[in-house]
Amino acid sequence: MGNEMSPLQKHRAEYRPELPPWLQGTAVKVEYGDAAIAADGADAHVIRRAFPHTYGQRLAHFLPKTANAPDATVITEHPAVRVGVVFSGRQSPGGHNVVWGLYNAINSHNPSSELIGFLGGTDGLFAQKTLEITEEVFSSYKNQGGYYMLGRTRDQIRTTEQVKAAMTTCQALKLDALVIIGGVTSNTDAAQLAETFAESKCSTKVVGVPVTLNGDLKNQFVETTVGFDTICKVNSQLISNVCTDALSAEKYYYFIRLMGRKASHVALECALQSHPNMVLLGEEVAASKLTISDITKQICDAVQARAEKDKYHGVILIPEGLVESIPELYALLQVSIST
């Protein structure tokens, strides 16, 4: 993509996301709470053993400036920092805006701070291929989709060699923090990288940002992932168009495959928004131990039931990971992988 922006892109770039009150201004009011614990208590000892240096740290709560919290700390002085950022994992809406927000935050706190982007995803991180992100560089990427400002490649930091390469880059560039933007796998790698850095006394802090269209990284602290809402709205609009076409022609069945390998959140949300005739959810298939014959019968029964009402058309949503959710096919896939 060239630097020339279309009229639509220029219009998009004019939008300014609104910051929560407690993130506005240069003063930061924070209160430290209890230690972070595993969502499932039964897993706590396993996680503590795997992450002895980073598990159980106190939670930081950001508060509005007017909040009455005697134990809160108000931070007004911010030293200049060097922060690295890398795109990792499948691209998702909102990735560029995360970089935009990061740039604005560190520069509003201290104009001497620097944001370093790694070109080509994690491969660029290992090879120290960098781009200094400035207002001029970023101006054509505000509110734009994709990851094309920096790009992405292998998208993993897992092997010993990869972890060492990442640490070498952070130390060579004297980074105060490394921000990894991605989904479940990328944030898992970020957590392991943070543990390794802490164990090795590397001063670079590792931050994982949940940016994934699958919506499968959420808990009591994260309402949903960056990109999930957008991808569901866009897909639902397209699905609704297909529903209108099916209703108009009255003779076609459309099978629409949606993103989501292990989580069918996109398919479910799109079904709630667009009202297709049928949606298959991988989690339900796995929990009910349905066979491919069972699923085929469900679809055929639905088609027959509609035909009895003189309706010979319909729309059926299928998550991309459905095949892996069928126990018999999953076992077959595992055998294929092992051989």
UniProtKB/TrEMBL annotation:
Domain Phosphofructokinase: 82-323
Pfam family, one: PFK
Any one GO biological process: response to glucose
Keywords: Cytoplasm, Glycolysis, Kinase, Magnesium, Metal-binding, Transferase
Cofactor: Mg(2+)
InterPro entries xrefs: ATP_PFK (IPR022953), Phosphofructokinase_dom (IPR000023), PKF_sf (IPR035966)
Known catalytic reactions: beta-D-fructose 6-phosphate + diphosphate = beta-D-fructose 1,6-bisphosphate + phosphate + H(+)
GO cellular component: cytosol
A GO MF label: 6-phosphofructokinase activity
Identification of the protein by name: Phosphofructokinase domain-containing protein
Organism annotation: Aegilops tauschii subsp. strangulata
